[in-house]
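Continuing the series of single-chain predictions for the mutant panel. This is the parent chain; the variants come on the following pages.
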Amino acid sequence: MTHFLSSDSNPNGYRLEDILGAVRRDLILRSVKIADDQRVEARSVLDNNIRILQLLSEAMHLAERSTHVLDKAYGPSQSAHGGPPRIGVA
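Parent structure:
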């Protein structure tokens, strides 16, 4: 069973790109709060956050491409309405 992602056992779950976007927004808000802190530790954390934001953005684009591939090949997902998964097994 998935905890966050949409699946046959969790039809009200989220798309991966939506979860990654929410995490990215939270990290941006947290980073803004330390942007003017010139301490070495804060600069290090901010640098790490910027790199994480880049990786999250890359992951979001990959997830969006996967959704696009599935939508193009099989149409919109019907799993939230009790339909079968578009690929794999239920």
